[in-house]
Every structure is written in structure tokens, then in C-alpha cells.
Description:
Layout: H1 2-18, E1 26-32, E2 53-61, E3 69-70, H2 78-90, E4 94-101, H3 111-128, E5 132-137, H4 155-175, E6 180-183, H5 205-211, E7 217-218, E8 228-229, E9 235-236, H6 241-253, E10 254-257, E11 260-263, E12 271-275, H7 288-299, E13 321-325, H8 327-330, H9 340-349, E14 367-370, E15 377-382, E16 390-396, E17 401-407, E18 413-415, E19 422-428, E20 431-437
Parallel strand pairs: 1-2, 1-13, 2-4, 4-5, 5-6, 6-7, 12-13
Antiparallel strand pairs: 2-3, 8-9, 10-11, 14-15, 15-18, 16-17, 16-19, 19-20
Helix pairs in contact: 3-4, 4-5, 6-7, 7-9
Amino acid sequence: MKKLFTLFLFSIFFSTITLSQIPNPALVGYWHNWNTASAPYIQLNQIDTNYNVIDLSFAIPKAGTDYDMEFTPTQVTSTTLISQIQALQANGKKVIISMGGATASISLDNFTERDTFVSSMNSIINTYGFDGIDIDFEGSSISVSGGTISAPTDAKIINLIYAIKQIMSDYYSANGKHLILTMAPETAFVQGGMSAYGGIWGAYLPVIHALRDSLDLLHVQLYNSGSMYGIDRNIYTQGNADFIVAMTEAVIQGFSTSGGVFNGLPASKVAVGLPACTSAAGGGFVDTTTVKSAIAYLLGTGSKPGSYTLAQAGGHPTLRGMMTWSINWDAVSTCNGTYSFSKNYKKIFGDSTLTSIANYDINQTNFVISPNPTENIITMESSELSQSPELVVIINSIGEIQFSQEISLGSNQINTINLKPGIYFIRYRNTLKKFIKI
């Protein structure tokens, strides 16, 4: 009876996490709807399988407008692309349509333009069966001329907020589920609010604030950026570990601006956005070793890699994942090695959230954790524990990764002091063990 009850609890656990709208951890990649010699077009069904959130780039305004949206496949038919999207979704991937990009100006200046934007985006979402939308408005698409973060006065910001809420409401009415919402602002539009609040500086903040309850993931572009203030009031420059850590913690902790206080987002709604290689952006590329050390520090599993000290001792273990521009660049062998960004993500975060108990051994006797229940320290013991570092992941009862770290035979203790009391699962290789934090 006890064994059957245990299996019942496991089935509830895995059923719960299967319902998660967005993968955890998430590897977000932008996919080009065009072909170039430097970063060739890739068929959707041929991209690296580590990517579990795929942003199709881009839905853009029809010629002669800056609000009536369209999306047209350039290399395959619409029917083929729809089939490829469905195949990705069948494998648990989330496929999102990104709106805007660096060269497409979108401006919702009045109710007519707002409503046309809504209807045209609804048509795109319904035609291709997208799981979500991504706001990648750049340039003059969002700007601030007055008001505050909590009470904007600019028509294009007020209309955008209304439009996104309407699109999400329409999707729920039609499909009975949440439409995923992500955002990919440049640093000036977010952290830049610490320098000034006006024009593009801090212009995304009222949008993030108004939509924070619906927002699934914010991945600020930590590239093509000027120097930015951190919340410690020091200035940081792109292309190193300090910039990654300081800019990421800023959106989690929040900060003050002349337009009011921006209250931070949960770390579970934040991912680190970086270019796949130097050719993928005008600046801001960071080598894989430095990225790994910066994110390990953010997660609370690594030492400080630079001069910036985290405001939250122990880091942010629920940090959601990573984003890159772009999948196409990551796939190019001359771009820092074929899929080096994707491979680095897997080294840092491991596999995505557990989806099937069949993949894991819950009765393995060669793998023991003690004490259980635990208060501060878990010791792992296994006859199979490797001399070389291997990834260990701790997951909470709803499938969210709380901790990930490479450990070896010589360092088999895990500090659990930052975990809240509750039930957790520790994963090592194909083995899953339950433990209680008190």
C-alpha cells in the first residue's frame, strides 16, 4: 500500500509539472524567417533539441502602416511551416511569434490602430497555432514623454498595454488556456531607467509593470548596449560577467527611477539574454566559460566572478534560463562552434523540467542522500558518483528547478539553506530521490 501511495504522489507531481506553460529551465532562441549566407535559414524541424522556446522572427507591420501586422514564411509554404510548428509542439516545445525586431517600427497611436493591431495579431496566432507572443519593440516603437511607471500617459504605451491584454483575453476565450507572453527589450529601455526616465530610457518599465501578472519571461538583450548603472550605483559595460550579473539582478531586485520605483520580477520570470557569438550582435558577446561562471553565481551555486556583489545573499536559484540571438547563428560552426550556446545552457541548467517518471529510477539503492529530512546540508553517497563533476539538480514539488550544480566524489555535499521548507526532489543521472527540507 505504501509503495502504491508513493507512486500516486509521483503521478500527481508529474501531472502538475506537465501543465506548466513555459519550460523550466527555458532555453529561448530566436529563429530567422529569412536566409543569409552568414547565418543560413534552418528548417524548424532541424534545430537543436535543447531549444524549448522558439521565437519566430518576426511579425511586422504591413507596408504603409506601423500597426497592421503580418507574418509570411519566406522559405517554405504556410502549410509546411504550420506542420513544423505542430511537430515541435508535439515534442513539448513552445513556439512563439515575436513582434517587431530591430528594423520594424510599431506604433499604436490611437484606438483604430490599436484595434487593427489586435485583430491582425489574433489572425496570425490562430493561423499558425502559436503558443505565445514576444514583444521585441525597438527604436521609436516605445518611448516615454511623461507620466510614471505605474501611471503612463503616452498613447502608444497605453494602447500597447490594452492591446496585449485583449490579445491574451481573446486567446483564452478561444482556447481555454493562457497565451505565453515574453519580452526582449534592450537595456536602455529597462535598466536605462536608472540613468533617466524619458524617451527610450526606461520606456518598457510601464509595460512590464502593467503586464507583470501575465508576463511569463523577461529576457533583456544584454548586448548592443551602452554602459548601464547597476543597483549598487556602479557603472557596468557589456561583454563580461559583471554586466550579466548586475543587469540580471537589477530586474529581479527592482530599482528607483525619476518615473517612480520599478518593483522587480520573480527570478522565475527572468532569463539571461546574450548573442550566440561576436557576429550575431554589434557587441556584448561573452565566452561560454564566463557565461557559465556568471550564471552559476546568479543561481547561488558558484563564486563571485567579478567585482559585482549580489544584493541577495545566496543568489537567485529560480532564475528561469537563457535566451540567445539566435538559433541560426548558434548553428553556424564558425560562430564560436556549432551550437555552443545551446551546449553551454545544458551544462549550466541540465535537462528541462521532468516530464515522465519512466525516465527516472526512484528505487535506486546505490544512490543515498542524508540526512532526510534535512535542515542545511545534504550529503550524497553513491557507488556511481563520478570523480569528474556531474550535474545535480534539485526540483520543487511543482517541477521548478531550485538548484543546479556540478558535483563530484570529492565534493558531495549540497547546501540547502536557501530552500524553503517543503518537499523536493534531487536528480542525479537517471535517478530521482525525494527529500524534505525542514
